[in-house]
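We emphasize that the prediction below concerns an isolated chain of 207 residues; any contacts that depend on oligomerization or on bound cofactors are therefore not represented. The input was used exactly as deposited, without trimming of termini.
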Amino acid sequence: MILGIETSCDETAAALVTADGRIAASVVSSQAELHARYGGVVPEVASRRHLELVTPVIREALSEADATLDEVDAVAVTQGPGLIGALLVGLAAAKAIAWSRKLPLVPVDHLDGHVASLYLQPDPLEPPFLCLLASGGHTLLLDVRGYCDHELLGTTLDDAAGEAFDKGARLLGLGYPGGREIDVLATPRRTTFPLRACRASTSPSPG
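Result of the prediction step, given as a token string:
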């Protein structure tokens, strides 16, 4: 069984996964409400919150899986890309567990982890396939040829799609996370636009 720890941005997460790709437990603690007042993730605030949450989240994941650290065979942890302070919290926690239990420590690339999630139960996807990866800070098009073999076909030249949504929403006064707010407005049920956003887009230009 693998214990996975993820703290690359504003979510503290831990999961337990079996050798055949079954998710025995997955616990995610989001900081979205904490950062909403700033209109985006504040790295220092995120790091401090990870410090408070990482141990309880790991304990909850073990409890959810009805497992103990004695049943863990390896510890995997996000090594990047991400916010450096946030990453360090997860790395420190993973190193401490691995060292104290004499377990292998497996550093994982954040983006490789997104692709690898497609291999998990209950509906694992087998390569080859084309993968559009659109996380908050990264947008990539990948040619996935095998479980450990993929080629980058293209990426954005400036902002990732997720960042563009958040920045656009901030300019329109829609709040954070912006992607969710824009998605709500884009659904057929909503035909009106918030007044505060209309003021920003319809005010007359000087002169």
